[in-house]
Amino acid sequence: MTAPFRDLRYLRLPVPSLDAAAEYGSDVLGLKLEDRTDAALYFRSDARNHALCYVDGAGEPVASVAVTVATRPELDAAKERLETAGFAADWLDAESCAARQIKAGVTAAAPNGVMVDIVWRPMTSGWPFHGPRPTGIVGLQAVQMACTDIAANERFWTEGIGGTVSDWAGQAAFINIDGAHHRVALYPSARDGMLGISFGVETTDHVMRNWYFMQGRQLPVVHGPGRQPTSGAKFVSTRGVGDIVYTYATPMDAPEANGPRQFPDEALSHCAWGSPSTMPEFNGGADK
Question: Which tens digit of pLDDT belongs to each residue from 65-121?
């Protein structure tokens, strides 16, 4: 079956202070600040005009994640698919489209409260990406969601959005939307909302360099360095602005041709190297 989307496009993340977020996105994450308004910061990680947008939490308190369709008929079909599956979907108005740097889009609330934008003709930059420090970042790789009702969120991302499950680790589900192993990971949790964002880096060397950078800056390392058994990506993660996890990860393996696998509900299913995590979502176990 053809993947329904071109890519995972962006995360819009509410923060209490745009000034603090501007410093974190550039100096710590190593992203390029492409645009700034009174209400938003647009950070690049690759050829797209932005992959991470920090927004003023007072005016936009709910996080949004976007996926891209190739044509306007596909956008219409995506809205119809959501509604057929029983999920309300609304057109983004002109002001919302301008803020997202897109031509048109549809938005729907996932069961965990995160808004999911399906977008058409998002802005792409004509300039190569060069970050302020040598992170090795090559692009936005995935997002992670915290879910009190994992089954409802899996149904939303499969029946409503049109993705497929690549693998399960316990109850955690890894959702393929564009042919990659996953762009969205759903984790059972005691809370709902955004859990994290992953940026792809070139090699394991870059994962380790970022780990040493975190140590040098006394940033909390919440998981890794490690290797994800499901996707095969090597990673290291910290927690920062917007109260989410930020991960640097190597390229993922392709989904298994024979369909999704079920991994045990344990910490080793989230890191094959056995790196400890301070995040309960990455430690396995049904009780969150």
Answer: 999 999 999 999 999 999 999 999 999 999 999 999 999 999 999 999 999 999 999
pLDDT 10s digits, 148-164: 999 999 999 999 999 99
Beta bridge partners of 147: 188
Q: Is the overall model pTM greater than 0.90, yes or no?
A: yes
SS3 (DSSP) at 95: helix
- As a whole number of angstroms, the distance between CA 202 and CA 138 comes to 6
What is the DSSP track for the chain?
---S-SEEEEEEEEES-HHHHHHIIIIIT--EEEEE-SSEEEEESSSBS-SEEEEETTT--S-EEEEEESSHHHHHHHHHHHHHTT---EE--HHHHHHHT-SEEEEEE-TTS-EEEEEES--B-SS----SS---EEEEEEEEEEESSHHHHHHIIIIIT--EEEEEETTEEEEESSSSS-SEEEEE-SS-EEEEEEEEESSHHHHHHHHHHHHHTT--EEEEEEE-TTT--EEEEEEETTTEEEEEEPPPPPPPTT--EEE-SSGGGT-TT---BS-GGGS--S--
pLDDT score, position 231:
98
For residue 2, the model assigns a pLDDT of 65
| Residues 189 and 148 sit within 8 Å (Cβ to Cβ) | yes
* Class of residue 33 by CB neighbours under 10 A (exposed 0-12, middle 13-18, buried 19+): middle
- Mean pLDDT value across the chain: 96
CA 71 to chain CA centroid, Å, is 23
**Would you state the structure tokens that stand for residue 168, as one six-digit string?**
């399960």
